[in-house]
Design goal:
The chain has 447 residues and is of the alpha/beta class. The chain folds into two domains: 224 residues, Spore Coat Polysaccharide Biosynthesis Protein SpsA, Chain A, CATH 3.90.550.10; 180 residues, UDP N-Acetylglucosamine Acyltransferase, domain 1, CATH 2.160.10. The protein contains nine helices and 36 strands. Strand 2 and strand 3 form a beta hairpin. Helix 6 crosses helix 7.
């Protein structure tokens, strides 16, 4: 897209303290659908392939720098003197740059790349010097137009007259303009307002007063510009993001029994003809193949499920699991950092941790792969077609050979050779008359 437009730079304002979040974490690092607020904004901006991308940080700048080191350039705003002041701090990063500059905010994660592309297209088609993004909704800044309907200026709610407060079209604070106009406008900002701050919004009025052409692009969906200031805002934005994610997967051939009750992170990939039942949570960079069936109440964390895997109900894949084609996992099975080969299965009540499992292996009910000795984690290998009986313990590190049969109740502490039966349990004994003697002692003690 940018090849057809002027070179682009992006400035993201992320220096706000976010006090209403009541958190020790930087506001823009709070997550929705598996990605931080700022991460969503950076990803959307990256679609336009900007030549420069600067993030303005403040009090919590060290946290933001650590999270985005190497991905963006950072600018420090030591004092909070308004959005105009924040952009002013970024101007040195734009030295020598003469293309377009897109101004964004680290706490508005729902804006789509397509919206930025529409702003680029409008600027190109109309020859506008500045394109601003507007919306209908509960946003403080009012868009004041002249008698001919042209944008005249932006007025903040605290500085607006009663008549201006009735204006429905609002300013989202997102702008695209030439770098020279941005430098000129910032240089002429004044702090003669109730807050004593420099507003980037005043660049709009400056452009109009100096004969520059200003165009406004009205968002069709006002939710897209939702800014996050509280936990409640974060919940609303997360709900909207989740709807988008689930809609995208349905468009790609995934079936949801109830989309409102499925929670999928933004980076998850799912193949067609997969069916997902209510209550499922799929997180991180998980990849699900085609024809997968997730039964209700399953949790999948950063794992891979190949084609035709069946999982659940109420199963849990912790990170770094790989279930190969045709694997079947039933209820109350937990798997962690393990690979299960094609056609293997574990029907219920089993824990498999730090294991490499071959093809067509069967885990009976109550099996535990004992991977942790209190200090270190250890690996277990189960080769093809092994049968692990109910309530068996595989104490790692251990290898169970091909076509081995582990008897129910066995605790395996050393390697089992191929084609063997492993039995390790006490011999059953009967003490006749024990119950009667016990009952007699009990009656005697009560007298």
């Amino acid at each position: 897209m940018t090849a057809q437009n002027d070179p682009l730079a992006v400035v993201i304002l992320a220096a706000g303290q976010g006090t209403r979040m009541k958190s020790s974490r930087a506001k823009v690092l709070h997550e929705l659908c598996g990605r931080t607020m700022l991460g969503h904004v950076v990803e959307a901006a990256d679609v336009l392939s900007p030549e420069r991308l600067a993030v303005v940080v403040g009090r919590d700048g060290d946290q933001v720098r650590a999270a985005f080191d190497g991905r963006v350039d950072f600018v420090e705003q030591a004092e909070q003197k308004g959005t105009g002041h924040a952009v002013k701090q970024a101007l040195p990063n734009l030295e020598g740059f003469e293309g377009d500059v897109l101004i964004l905010y680290g706490d508005t994660p729902l804006l789509r790349p397509e919206t930025f592309e529409r702003m680029q297209a409008l600027r190109k088609e109309t020859g506008a010097d500045l394109v601003m993004l507007t919306a209908i909704g509960p946003i403080p800044g009012r868009v004041v137009r002249d008698a001919d309907g042209r944008v005249e200026r932006i007025v903040e709610a605290q500085d607006a007259t009663p008549a201006e407060l009735e204006i429905e079209e609002r300013n989202t604070g997102v702008y695209m303009m030439s770098a020279p106009l941005l430098r000129e406008g910032i240089a002429n900002l004044k702090d003669d307002n109730q807050q004593g701050e420099l507003y980037i919004t005043d660049v709009v009025g400056y452009a109009v007063q100096n004969g520059r052409k200003v165009e406004a692009l009205l968002l069709e969906d006002g939710n897209e510009c939702l800014g996050i200031n509280t936990r409640g805002d974060l919940a609303l934005a997360t709900e909207e993001m989740r709807r988008r994610i689930n809609a995208r997967h349905m468009e790609n051939g995934v079936t949801f029994i109830d989309p409102a009750q499925v929670y999928i992170d933004v980076d998850v990939e799912i193949g067609c003809d997969t069916v997902i039942e209510p209550g499922c949570v799929i997180q991180g960079n998980s990849v699900l193949g085609e024809g997968v069936h997730l039964k209700s109440q399953c949790v999948v964390e950063s794992s891979r499920l190949d084609d035709d895997v069946i999982l659940g109900p109420m199963a849990h894949l912790r990170p770094n699991c790989h279930l190969k084609a045709g694997v079947k996992i039933g209820n109350f099975v937990e798997i962690k950092n393990s690979t299960l080969g094609e056609g293997s299965k574990s029907a219920h009540l089993t824990y498999i941790g730090d294991a490499t499992v071959g093809e067509k292996v069967n885990f009976g009910c109550g099996v535990v792969v004992v991977n942790y000795d209190g200090i270190d984690k250890h690996q277990t290998t189960v080769e093809d077609e092994a049968f692990i009986g109910c309530n068996a313990n595989l104490v790692a590190p251990v290898t169970v050979g091909r076509k081995t049969f582990i008897a129910a109740g066995t605790t395996v502490t050393k390697n089992v050779p191929e084609d063997a039966l492993a039995v390790a349990r006490s011999k059953q004994e009967h003490i006749e008359g024990w119950v009667s003697r016990r009952e007699a002692r009990s009656k005697k003690s009560k007298k």
